[in-house]
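User: Please predict structures.

Assistant: First:
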Amino acid sequence: MAAKARAKNRMDKKIRDKTVTEKNMAEKTIIIEKTTIEKTTTELKNEIRAATDIEDFLKKNRSSMVTGGLPEWLNMLLAQKRISKADVVRGSLLDRTYVYQIFSGDRTPSRDKLIALAFGLRLSDDETQKMLKLSCNRELYARDERDALILFALQQQWPVLKANELLFRHGFDVLGAPV
């Protein structure tokens, strides 16, 4: 009898924890969705150069600042695109546990893992660039042959397998290789 009660308590706690986590993620998604970029990065850099008081600069430009991190942005994309994490796993060729850890913020993925994730999320090339920037990774560079191939595959909305065939044919490492 006591074992059943403990099992029920554990189950109740898991449900409460999941509900709290989902609520927190929803709140963070709302914060990110409300963030509107009003000024370009160049405009902000110029204002920083001209600023004499950083606090004043921050107050004036709060709405142009990026809030939240990569996990929040990724979860917002899931909601916007109406796809599941399982779809992302299938579309990225990444390990299920690894993908879930990226979305929860428990893992910091490499640039290649993020690019594989972009295919799983069905991101445009611009959205992929934003994700790479947000994660402090180097953006895809059209003068780099491998990056040019990846950009082409993203623009063509190819699945990651077709992108990998292209990379392999040109002698480059493929995306979504095991963790």
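Second:
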Amino acid sequence: MALQKTTVYLTTDDYRRLKVMAKQQNRPTAELVREAVTEYARAHGPATLPSSVGAGHSGRGDISERVDELLQGLGSVE
């Protein structure tokens, strides 16, 4: 995982709480901040599309115009 350095300004109270939590969990404060940012971004950020979306490319530009023709007979029981 590649990391980018940034600076975050916290209130004195928040910083103290963060330090106490880090000590209680025996984890670095930076790890707690990264975890919090990850959770926030997942909850409030844009939804990510599955990696399969856009994976297929037919190279044809007329698929949407020919959909009825191309799907004709598909799913019919004969």
